Amino acid sequence: xxxxxxxxxxxxxxxxxxxxxxxxxxxxxxxxxxxxxxxxxxxxxxxxxxxxxxxxxxxxxxxxxxxxxxxxxxxxxxxxxxxxxxxxxxxxxxxxxxxxxxxxxxxxxxxxxxxxxxxxxxxxxxxxxxxxxxxxxxxxxxxxxxxxxxxxxxxxxxxxxxxxxxxxxxxxxxxxxxxxxxxxxxxxxxxxxxxxxxxxxxxxxxxxxxxxxxxxxxxxxxxxxxxxxxxxxxxxxxxxxxxxxxxxxxxxxxxxxxxxxxxxxxxxxxxxxxxxxxxxxxxxxxxxxxxxxxxxxxxxxxxxxxxxxxxxxxxxxxxxxxxxxxxxxxxxxxxxxxxxxxxxxxxxxxxxxxxxxxxxxxxxxxxxxxxxxxxxxxxxxxxxxxxxxxxxxxxxxxxxxxxxxxxxxxxxxxxxxxxxxxxxxxxxxxxxxxxxxxxxxxxxxxxxxxxxxxxxxxxxxxxxxxxxxxxxxxxxxxxxxxxxxxxxxxxxxxxxxxxxxxxxxxxxxxxxxxxxxxxxxxxxxxxxxxxxxxxxxxxxxxxxxxxxxxxxxxxxxxxxxxxxxxxxxxxxxxxxxxxxxxxxxxxxxxxxxxxxxxxxxxxxxxxxxxxxxxxxxxxxxxxxxxxxxxxxxxxxxxxxxxxxxxxxxxxxxxxxxxxx
Length: 660
Prior knowledge:
Helices cover about 65% and strands about 5% of the residues. It has about 650 residues and is α/β, with parallel strands linked by helices. The strands form 2 sheets. It has a 6-stranded parallel beta sheet with strand order 3-2-1-4-5-6, with helices on both faces. α21 links the parallel β2 and β3 (about 460-465).
């Protein structure tokens, strides 16, 4: 098979695998793994003609670029911000997993000396691989489920960050463990010094040198040069670390971390993003190709044991540690379920252990198969985690009920309020405007620190997931006058919109987005109005530019209004004034406020609006000034203020019809 034919085969397998997983709503990584298994010479043999050495060579490059991408996404500020979970739960999980697994393997070796031959070096290397979890699968699932800022999500992210950091000394340690027995102590001592030097480089001085060099390259203002330099640094550092007695993967990881700490990270991410999933796919395809399913079939009891025992062990250990460190039983169990599987770094450490002669070939395939199977099971475990926790933890339903009660207690007196989903900068700015106007609001957010600080400052905000109907109902969804969704994640916004439309189909919902790319999709999902930040920024820039070149401010305001009229359906129109009587403006849409007479008392809003077909209701307030929902079944009391939108002639007819 030629190189071109093999490349085409890889692409076809990747496309089919990813398409199938997307159809089944599973992570794309699983598709890459399955594609690699099908191409494996001992399965369907789709990659026939490729010997083991060529596959291992391809896998090395997959590992290199995987480690670079993960290093680029490694976030030292986030590491510091989450240090309580990182260096508490995360450090305890990695250290105890390695210690207990190593001790267990050595004990089994002593008890079953005639059938079990694993030295302490191999046990230590395998324990490091077992301590890792899948960042790619777990983070993707948590993003889709809006759980990154939840209590268990914060703990899971802390553990994953520590595992990313722990892989640095492990990549140094494993080659040292493969040294000859008489040189083992010296190799371990040297490996310890190398690990300390590398971690110091990552945490302190390395980014200064990287920033200086990238600045020199960026000043040439050549994208080709910048990309070539990026590849040179990645492969160059990988080559240097390999010649220093370490591994290719470690150099690539260091390169990614150093770049992530510079101001050029965004540019690098933008250039590497098109290759990100391709590089991950290459790695997982090669992992699948390394599996020898004939040995697995012959050793299925061992594979089954290697799947169930490590998963249950990690699940129990993580849940116990999280519980001891202050998490509730439900949060602790969820954290354990999310971290029980094997991970990408585990594959890296396993292949490195085999290359260094620490792992016998007859054990490599069963262990690798068990890791792949645990990752294949992860999406199903996470999707069923809530039902499992509710069934196993007797107090979990009470915890969730208490959370809903806390939300309901804050919103119990709110009537006609605005419900804000997401209390970041935009949500807080919205709340300040509403507060100035005396309009009540209730906000939901999933960041516990932000909620705690905002509540201490007297803001009406509660911890809750707006994608869950229980949280929205507890926050007074059925009594709200409007909902504002300030989060930018499209998948999360679609979930929230679906929940709102299922519970309150007539409630107006305003959605914030960065661009208007998904405008039609959001409106089709039920958004009353979509506000793209890019459009508003462009309008403000244009307005300032017009004012600076001498255009009268009145005309600038008129131009801005017309542009918004074309974009926002709810903003089409303005309140008519004495100076707005030109002939052209008589045909334009405007707003007018009407005070409903006492004669409408007892009538439905729909009956009052029926004769006014050419007009559109915008908002309504009670005689006390409280906002009221635009509900056709609302029974009027008289004295309400109703704002209608339309042209001059229908508004004039409405004024006669609604005259007191």
